[in-house]
Amino acid sequence: MAKRFEKYQIDLLEAGFEESEHLTKEKKIYLRRVTGLDMEQIASWFRRKRAWKRAKESRGELERIQNELQQNKNREAELEEENRHLKHWLTIIICGLIICFIMAIFKKVTFDDYGTILEYINFVDLDPCSPELTRLDPEAH
């Protein structure tokens, strides 16, 4: 079983890593002398430390991307809801205009009455739970 490094050895290796993540020959010799570890142990510790640092950075990046994805999904849901409402209103307006034109063709409505019908359309709301149109109190708007 591998022997754990002493705290002072880890502290010296950490200080060397903060200086530079890569070892020079001089740094290896210095760390070997002050820690009592052999060159392979020092090189291996630096490799593991670099890999650990990369993994930590990757986890942070993954978390950032996941948060961004969730925000995009929330925004997409909001836009879909807005799109659904706009389609409902567009349907109401188009139906009102079609009714106006049909009635005008059969002389049931004059072109002066279009304003009144379009005013009515402004006070109509489509209940998302029901296909029925209900007239709302104009003072509520």
TrEMBL record:
GO terms for biological process: positive regulation of DNA-templated transcription. Residues 3-57 bind DNA. The chain crosses the membrane at residues 89-106. One of its GO terms (molecular function) is sequence-specific DNA binding. It comes from the Eukaryota. Residues 55-85 form a coiled coil. Its main location: nucleus. Pfam families: Homeodomain (PF00046). Belongs to the HD-ZIP homeobox family. Class I subfamily. This is Homeobox-leucine zipper protein. The lineage of its organism: Eukaryota, Viridiplantae, Streptophyta, Embryophyta, Tracheophyta.
